[in-house]
Amino acid sequence: MEEGLEDKMLGDLFRQKLEYGEIAPSPSLNTTIMRTVARREFFHFIPSRFNIWYAGAVIVAGTALTLILTSPPEQKIDEQIISIPSGKTITVTESGRSDNFSGVPESKPSTANPVKSGSRQIESKIASAETRLREEPSSGKSTSQASDQASLSQVSGTNVIPELTEDNNRLKGSIRSEHYIRASISQGCSPLKVSFSCLAVPCDSCSWLFGDGGFSKLKNPVWIFDVAGEYKVNLNVFSAGTKSVSSVIITVHPQPAARFEITPENAILPDDEISFHNYSDGAEKYIWDFGDGITSDLPEPHHLYRKSGNYNVRLIAISEHGCTDSVVVENAFPESGYFIEFPNAFIPNENGPSGGFYSTRSDESSQIFHPVFSGIGSYQLRIFNKGGALLFESNDISYGWDGYYKGSLCDPGVYIWKVRGNYLNGDPFTKMGDITLLKN
Amino acid sequence: MMSDQQIIEGCAKHERKAQQLLYDRYSRFLLGVCLRYATDKAEAEDILQDSFLKIFFNIEDYSGTGSFIGWLRKVAVNTAITHYHKNLKYRYHVDIEDYVSVETGITSFEEDFFTSDELYRVLNELPAGYRMVFNLYAVEGYKHKEIAAMLGIDTNTSKSQYSRAKAVIREKLEKLRTLKMKYTAGEEIDRIKENTENR
Description:
The complex is a heterodimer of chains A (440) and B (199).
Chain A: H1 3-18, H2 27-43, H3 52-70, E1 79-83, E2 89-93, H4 109-112, H5 124-134, H6 140-149, H7 166-171, E3 176-177, E4 181-183, E5 187-189, E6 192-198, E7 205-209, E8 215-216, E9 222-225, E10 229-239, E11 242-253, E12 260-263, E13 273-278, E14 285-289, E15 295-296, E16 302-304, E17 313-318, E18 324-329, E19 339-341, E20 345-346, E21 372-374, E22 376-384, E23 390-394, E24 404-405, E25 408-409, E26 413-423, E27 428-437
Parallel strand pairs in A: 3-11, 5-11, 20-27
Antiparallel strand pairs in A: 1-2, 4-6, 6-9, 7-8, 7-10, 10-11, 12-13, 13-16, 14-15, 14-17, 17-18, 19-21, 22-23, 22-26, 24-25, 26-27
Helix pairs in contact in A: 3-5
Chain B: H1 4-12, H2 16-36, H3 41-57, H4 68-86, H5 116-125, H6 128-139, H7 144-151, H8 155-198
């Protein structure tokens, strides 16, 4: 059989049987579909049907109204536009205060806020409700007036494109740029804490972008800028369907870092002249407070203290923008400047007496018995053997015992040492102990 | 009784009543279309639901010149194609080479021999790709070029898929025929027996 014919027959079979074939759907499918349709329609803008856009418009209008009614009289109000997506537009103009506050005497809020629109017509029920509410605080007379002015008409959305006044045309849909930001400070040192306030009234929702990646939905947020730099803070105000953008520049100056070091280490007051080494960053001016009532503004000062004591040294580093950092070294010259300590063993040089003079460099192998010390004024060292005989005596701290007595090396063993004297600050000291003489 | 025109106008205004009427009038037909493109009734009803959403929200797209039922069918077929593409990766892919064309002695198929339920079953059991091409070509009457564009495949692929689909269908129908012959034959014997006993 020819392929073509067979082909056609198979197709025909299916077409004839199935082209208009009908299958009964499950009964539940009907409700499922209708429910889905209803849900979609709610989120889908259809003028003739109550849906989310209408619900949204009612909420927006209600919020705007509440804000207008509750806003304190001293706040500036320019103009609010309530635009409803279906094309109905309500314009509420608040005249008087901000526009011509110069010579016009302040009138009461109730009378100063007449509801106006270009055509003197307020469309939709929302607007009429608003009119009544707005006029509540005023006298009954003005209420009736307002209701008279408002011609109420509920119009179906599809064919309603209300005549827009010039005012409306100018403002509708445009993003208005007005300065609604009040910042507590426009520049300062990091970390800079800035209190922002949104001046827009009404303010259905505020959205702050702080320019450093941070954001806030609060009306009056407080933000801390940690890092130095210039930040453009943006405020989007959504009020009654319009969006206003405001921005302000916040300059955050870097913080200097104050650091310094004191030399010499373990300085002895009042003998040593103290040098202050300045390692500060990002500063151009310095104030030193040496703690003894004397200050300096040199970058790296030297100072001679008149007497010993506990001094708190403070450095204040000031940057070009006036940002400051300070660091304090408390008790900069501690008691550790006055000490005397002895070892407990030494190995004398067997090649003969050296006379006992030493320096820390020449006595690396501990051939001389001598103390490590600081801030010693007067000094007397005596060495005794176990029998109590005096073997060595020195009144000069730069001379220690070389381990010899009368020209001959002492036997290895334990000897007694005793030291007394005064520190440079006048405090006396007396110490004694034993020393083991070792042999190589 | 509302005319199609009234229903369309009502649906354009999103009137619930018109939508319900449209559903009542055409859901059976559209499910028949959807079932040809699905593996089972549940999938067909999924496609049907999406089709109705499209129909209700895009009814203004219907120009009013062509036949309304044709437009509805087109929406359903397009939805089925979308559905096919969406679920393509989840489907069990049948190796095409498994279905080698089988030459059968059968040259024609008696129209009344197979019920439409059986034919739906045959279509449902086809691999999805074959089913799409076969439906679009044989039942909907599209050209291979159009099918290739709709499914995003090559024209030759469409042609070869179609011929393989036919082979599979023929094989299935052949099996079905043998089964039915046996069954009807058995029935016949039973009836004869019954008759003889009665006598």
